[in-house]
Amino acid sequence: MAVESREEATGARPNTWATTRILDPSPAKGRWASRMAEVTAPPPTGARRIAAIAWASPTTAVGLLLGVVAAGTWEWREDLGAIVVSGARNPLVRMGGFAGQGVGHVIVSSRDPVPPRLLVHESAHVRQAEQLGPFTLPLYFWWLARHGYRHHPMERGARATARAWVTKTRLAPASGGE
Question: No. of H helices and E strands in the chain?
Answer without folding.
Answer: 7, 4
